[in-house]
Amino acid sequence: QVQLVESGGGLVQAGGSLRLSCAASGSTSSISFIGWYRQAPGKQRELVARISSGGSTNYVDSVKGRFTISRDNAKNTVYLQMNSLKVEDTAVYYCNAVLWGANYWGQGTQVTVSS
Question: Looking at residues 37-46, what average pLDDT do you find?
Answer without folding.
Answer: 96
